[in-house]
Amino acid sequence: MGLPLPNVAAHSRHDIRLFGSFHVGGLELALPVDALQEVVNLPEAITRVPLAPDYVAGLFMLRGTMVPVLSLDRLLGLAEADSVRDRRVAVVKSEHTLLGICFDRTGEMLRLDSSQVVSFAAEGDANGLIEGAFDLESRIVQVLSATALARVPGLPQVPRPRAFQLDHRRRAPARVRKVVSFHVDGRLLAIPMEDIHEIVRLPTLEHSVLSDAMCHGWLELRGAAVPVVDLARFLGLESSGAVEHQDPDVEDLRRVVVLRKGDGHVGLLVDDIESIVSYTDEQLLPLPIVSGQTGILGHCINRRASGMQDVTVIGTEALFADPYMAHLAKGHHDLYLVGEENTRRTETRSKPSRETWLIFRLDRLMAVRIEQVVEIVESHGALVRPPGAPPHVCGVVNDGRSLTTVVDLRTLYGMDTTESLDNPKILVVQHNGHRYGLTVASVESIVGIEPGAKIRIPSLVANHLDPELKQDLHEVIDSPEHGSVLLLDVLSLMQRLTG
Among 237, 318, 406, 487, which is disulfide-ready with 295 (CB 3.0 to 4.6 Å)? Predict the structure, then answer.
C-alpha cells in the first residue's frame, strides 16, 4: 500500500489540532477528535454482510442507527489480536454517514500544533487511508483519513432513514457533547473533551518539593510543569499507591489526563482510558452534593437506555477551584518552568522556520526534504528492466497511473550490494513530469531540522566519498537521536540522472 505525497502546508504556530490515538496489530494510529462521535465496547452481536470483503466485520445497531464496522487489522494486512476482551469500536463521522472501526486498545489524546503533523495527502487526492503522521517521543503515529475509510471498497453504505432526515430538517438537533471516560478504582468517570489539554502515558516523574500522598511529582510538557495527582486518592478511593510500573511484561495502561487553566496545569493519574462518550443534555442527571468534594463530581450521564454503564462527569471548573489543586497548579508553574505560551513566544522570536526531513538508511543514515517525496511504496518484483539500462536502474514499474523508473542508490553510489535488504522501500520523487523511485533499506523517521543546525561536509571527509555520492551530498546534521545524518540533494541527483 503506497503512502501518498507528504504535502507540507504552512500553518500558524497556534493552529492546534486534537487527536485520539489507538493501537491495532502493533501499529499506533490516530484520528482527529472532530471525526470521532464516540467509542463503544465491541458489540456482542455483529451481523455479517454476505459477499463483503473479510475486512468488513458486519453491521450493528447503535441507538436505532445501523452502523457498518471495519476490521482495521484485516484492512491494513496486520496480525489479528489474540483476544477480543479489550477491543473497542470507534464510531467515525464522515460525509454524513457513520461507520465503526474496530481496534485493539485505546492510546492517548494529543494536542498538537499543525506544523507537527506531516500531511501525506497529495493535492486533489482523498483516497489514501493514511493522510499524515507525526513524530511523538521517538515513535511515529500515523493519522487515518475518515473520508478514505468511508470510501473503502465493499463497505455497506447505509443511508439514514428518510423520516429521520425530514424530522431533522424541521427542528434544530439536540446539541451533542463529548467526554473522555476512564477508570479510577473500578469507577467509570469522565472529563469533557474540550477541557482536556492532552492525555499522555505515565512517564518517570520529577521530584517535587510539593509532593505528598496525593501528588507523586511532576512532568514536563513543552515548557510547562504539570503536577501529577493520584485521582483515586484525591476522591477518597482506593489507590495502588506505587507510581513505578511493577510488571515489565505487562503494558502499563495508566494515563495522565492533563488539564489547563491559564498558565496552570494539573495532571490526573487514572487507571486507563475507556472511551469517548457522546451524550445530549437530556441524558444528564445532577448528582447529590457530597461533603468534601462539593461540585467536583458534577453530573451523571444516563446510558441505561443503551444498556451501558452510567458515567460520572468531573467538573473541571470546580476541580481548579479546589484549594489543593489551585495550590499545586500555581506552585509548580512558579517553581519549575516558564509557561508554554512564554516558551512559544521566545521560540518564535529566536528561531527560524524548521525544515522537515525524512531519514532513511542505505549503508548509513541519510535524509531528503520531505516535500520532495511523492510517496513511499513497498519494493516489489514487478519491474521491467529496459535493454541497455545502466546498472543502477532496477527497472520500470507501472502502477496503473504512470511509469516509475526505479534506481538502486546503493549501486549508484558504489555501496556494498551483496547483502540483501530485509524490507526495502522505494521513495518516489518527481522531476520534470517524470517519476523516479529510489530504493532504500528502510525509512527511519520524520524529523524537524533547524536550518542553522546543518553543517557543510568538510572537504577532508568529502574527498573520501564515492565520486557520485560526493556530487549529491553537501551538508550533514548531528541528531541527538540518530547521530550523523547525511543530507541528500535530490535536485542534484535528478539533474544528473536525466541530463
Answer: 318
Distances (CA, A) of 308 to 41, 158, 274: 9, 24, 13
Q: Which of 72, 32, 277, 319 is nearest to 176 (CA)?
A: 277
The per-residue pLDDT for 327 is 92
Q: Cell digits for 270?
A: 487514572
Number of residues written out for the chain: 499
Please say if the pLDDT value at position 13 is more than 80. Answer: no
E strand or H helix at 166: helix 162-170
Tens of pLDDT along 62-83?
877 888 999 988 888 887 766 5
Residue 376 C-alpha cell reads as 513511499
Q: Torsion over CA of 365, 368, 374 and 380, rounded to 10 degrees?
A: -20
Tell me, what amino acid is at 53?
Answer: P
Q: Give pLDDT tens digits for 248-293.
A: 777 788 999 999 988 899 999 999 888 778 888 888 887 665 444 5
Q: pLDDT band at residue 326, thresholds of 50, 70 and 90? A: very high
- All cell numbers assigned to 176: 451533542
Same fold flag, 16-165 and 176-348: yes
Asked whether the predicted pLDDT for residue 398 surpasses 80, the reply is: no
Over the range 40-61, which residues count as b (16 or more CB within 10 Å of their CB) and which as e? bebbeebeebeebeebbbbbbe
Judge whether 309 and 218 are in contact, CB under 8 Å.
no
Instruction: Spell out the domain ranges in the chain.
Output: 16-165, 176-348, 355-498
CATH class of 355-498: mainly beta
154-199 pLDDT, tens digit each: 888 766 544 444 444 444 556 778 888 899 988 899 999 888 888 8
On whether the CB atoms of residues 270 and 183 are closer than 8 A, the answer is yes
* Alpha helix positions (H), 31-161: 72-75, 146-150
CATH superfamily placement of domain 176-348: CheA-289, Domain 4 (2.40.50.180)
